[in-house]
Amino acid sequence: MVEGGVKKADKTEFTECWKTTWKTPYIMRLALSAGIGGLLFGYDTGVISGALLYIREDFQQVDRKTWLQQETIVSMAVAGAIAGAAFGGWVNDRFGRKKSILGADVLFAVGAIIMAVAQAPWIIILGRFFVGLGVGMASMTAPLYISEASPARIRGALVSTNGLLITGGQFLSYLINLAFTKTSWTWRWMLGIAAVPALVQFILMLSLPESPRWLYRQDKVEEARSILERIFPANEVDDEMNALKLSVEAEQADEHAIGDGLIQKVKGALSDVVVRRGLYAGITVQVAQQFSGINTVMYYSPTIVQFAGFASKKTALALSLITSGLNAVGSIVSMTFVDRYGRRRLMLISMAAIILCLVTLSFVFLEAANHAPKINQLDTNFPTNATCPSYLSAPKPSSWNCMSCLKAGCGFCANGANEYSPGTCLEFSTDLRDSCRGQHRTWFKDGCPSKFGFLAVVLLGLYIISYSPGMGTVPWIVNSEIYPLRYRGIGGGLAAVSNWISNLIVSETFLSLTKALGSAGTFGLFAGICFITLIFIYCLVPETKGLQIEEVEQMLKTGYKPKLLRGKSKGDIQSA
């Protein structure tokens, strides 16, 4: 996925993880039980892409009245996630990691049930907000719990499982969507079944302990020790307790130095030149990640596939499954390359490839629109008053094609013998749609029959392959390395908020943009934004691979400049 971070783990750490968890399976039980939060995170952000196809069919006002309503159904989970992440930190510190995860499970389950029984679009929106609250809390609590309940030597590998479960949850959501296409309640099953893993995690977490670090901070030292005794060999417990004591004391000293209040912490961070420059880099890569358009694919991929000319919902879901699978594979690929080739280089290559894919995708959609099937003016299978009113009143109806018909808010009934031959432009209504299908013809309302359609799907796949190993995971790694230790929490939090807000903007405007600019114009716009963010990444984001915290801090204090902008100076700390 696109929201939430993955702590980098190398091959040695994964090998050590396997050996350690084989000897102490309790550690893996802790990680996987908490990781279900990541699975729910991925599922609830991905499932709406398929469910929306059927929601539009059941609620005509969603399909017909306004694109804004569709966008709100999709993006309300993101709005809820912003709120959930905003107060999730306070809940974590006040009530503990375990109770936060249990609370997120309740929100997931309540939201899923509300959506499953919804009788109106606004009830679905309410359910999506509840789910979003759960997503926001799970996005920060699950990796935190795993990190604090894991041995340091395998922490990265275990936290990485949460990231893999997020992309796995997205992939699962597409499988579930496809599985329920033939059922009578379609979208209700798709959205409601998320209550099941939430219930499973709730039951599992009841039997698991609180984070030992949180307990230690609450002066529950013996409870923390008893948990560490179940995680570590007996001869290592004293060392771990001592390390925990030193770590908590250092953390509390930092908190005392920068202040307790959120506003005070933000002011302190912004007044420090090193943190400011870190934020320039951290926020740049987070905003760039979202404005690459990734969540238009994750949230709307079946709809985009329909834009490409695949009217069948089942076909759209099946093809979308491929893009989700590629995203999951890309997350694994990133773990292999990010320490070999570096963060900065991987992001620059990834963004350049994304731009190429988006430009080509824009061109393909433009060609598809220009070569859309013409309108058959002599079709006698429908009454005259069924013809699209805008077509009848057009000054040059002979110039119309399928795309002109859809832009006018009407539906296109394809030619029964050959979809690419001229078809009929009809007034948009359920009765006429059913009449068209009753003649064994295909009804198009989001995209037109196109010989370019399969090429568009291939390009979507290439886009995901370009995005996932680079811009998909690296921005989160950069944000875990770019800030001084005492400001890492507030710096990472500000960058994460910028990511969620950018996500909300993109998901809330995508369908409106396609209506105003067309699919070609929208993907062209994203390509232009990506080009601008590529320049910002080149100018503002340094390489942090292999650097100690002190080295990163010194580099930012001096002021980072890429190689092309710094001239011949020998005093540069970091090369481009």
In short:
It is a multi-pass membrane protein. Keywords: Membrane, Symport, Transmembrane, Transmembrane helix, Transport. The chain has 25 helices and three strands.
Describe the overall structure.
The chain has 576 residues and is mostly helical. It has four domains: 10-208, Growth Hormone, Chain: A (Up-down Bundle); 210-258; 260-365 and 466-576, MFS general substrate transporter like domains (Growth Hormone, Chain: A, Up-down Bundle); 372-444, no CATH class. 73% of the residues lie in helices and 1% in strands. It has helices spanning 11-23, 25-46, 48-58, 60-65, 67-95, 97-116, 121-148, 155-179, 186-192, 195-206, 212-217, 221-231, 237-258, 262-271, 273-291, 294-307, 313-341, 343-370, 389-392, 402-407, 430-438, 453-472, 474-481, 488-540, 549-558, and strands spanning 411-413, 424-426, 443-444. A three-stranded antiparallel β-sheet has the order 2-1-3. Helix 8 (155-179) runs antiparallel to helix 17. The radius of gyration is 26 Å and the shape is globular. Mean pLDDT is 84; it is low at 1-7 and 569-576.
Distance between the termini: 28 Å
Task: Spell out the helices and strands N to C.
Answer: HHHHHHHHHHHHHHHHHHHHEEHEHHHH
State the major sheet: 3 strands, antiparallel
CATH class of the largest domain: Mainly Alpha
Task: Write down the overall mean pLDDT.
Answer: 84
- Adjacency order of strands in the biggest sheet: 2-1-3
CATH architecture of the largest domain, by name, is Up-down Bundle
Class by SSE composition:
mainly alpha
Domain tally: 4
Number of strands: 3
The CATH topology of the largest domain corresponds to Growth Hormone, Chain: A
Radius of gyration: 26 Å
Subcellular location: Membrane
Domain Major facilitator superfamily (MFS) profile: 30-545
Membrane topology: Multi-pass membrane protein
GO cellular component, one term: plasma membrane
